[in-house]
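Sample 1 of the test manifest.
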Amino acid sequence: MSDTPLPAPLAEIAEDFRSASNDLKLQLLLEFSDDLPGLPERYAGHLEQLERVDECQSPLFLTVEVGDGGSLDDRVVSLFFDAPPEAPTTRGFAGILHEGLDGLSAAEVLAVPDDAPMRFGLAEAVSPLRLRGMVAMLGRIKRQVRTRTAG
Amino acid sequence: MSAEDTKISAYAHPERLVTTEWLADQIAAGRIGGPDGIVLLESDEDVLLYETGHIPGALKIDWHIDLNDPVTRDYVDGARFAEVMGARGIGRDTTVVIYGDKSNWWAAYALWVFSLFGHEDVRLLDGGRAKWVAESRELTREAPSPSAVDYPVSDRDDAPIRAFKDDVLAHLGKPLVDVRSPGEYSGELLHMPDYPQEGAMRGGHIPGAKSVPWARAANEDGSFKSREDLEAIYLEEQGLAPADDVVAYCRIGERSSHTWFVLTHLLGFESVRNYDGSWTEWGNSVRAPIER
């Protein structure tokens, strides 16, 4: 694992997970799944405007908006996710990333280490296979931020 | 007798399936859980689905965490299986009913693993979780706390119902059923449509395999098709016979557990093995012959 620190909100969530028993980790993940915000009206019913993350076991769609600003430190990132209720693990992963990254600057999101999903102690609770979905979501989020702030 | 009961009574082993109606009656009669009761298990693809709400009295069993060995690429051994069962209050004679998401793929997979250990009385809920939900039946987030019992350490007997790669090589020329989607069978796709690239180096199928996607055995609501409809597919159309020696496979052995259940318990085939290594093993194996 790299030594790059996680941004504060994500680090706090990671600490909550790491200090929990496996059963409690699932309960926490369920809370993130339950609390994942729905899509705002401009995206609802327009999944074609979102990027589909194929690496998740169940379909997940996400998109990123980056606010205006002079530098990457001033430009605020907003995240939007859509996943069905029958896919609570995927929703839970999305919920973690939403609470941990939404509202951060583009610079902070781009600095999130790619192995961040491995720092929650989730592998033994949900199996490493299933964690791939969160790795893929983070990858897409960073790529979208990069694309939207290029040039 | 309801139409569903009539359908089930026509199968070769009708005792292997229960209806949502029957299960609701057992719950109402207080027969779920307890030392002499029925143990109800939910086995899902999504590791968190049980926590979002499950059938009252159901316990969770996870294919990956509870049934697979964390180190060896294999199922758990007899000692670990005994722990998994005992902790859920399951004795060797307990009636176990399993249900799950995705038209019971993972429920059928768990049932098949239970069968490797020779657990006698294990059944599926016809239609699984989706049918129960579609009928607006009760779900709860309350997890039961079963009293542990002793489950005897039982040897896993793989040979009758599980095929390894070498068994499949020796089986070439005899009936093989590929239950994946048509795109996976043809080699166009290296994974299930809509699913991660849990990749194989090459696409295609095992030489001589017939393509019978698992879903053809299921109705829209996730329940199994009638015996007559199943016979039309597997016997008349595909030319299989109940006395045939058959191997079924998919990507990792979950969808083929569903077909294994159909052939073995619904149609009464005597010798069906599930090749759980499936395409992720075969498609990556050096010099394993394939067809496209």
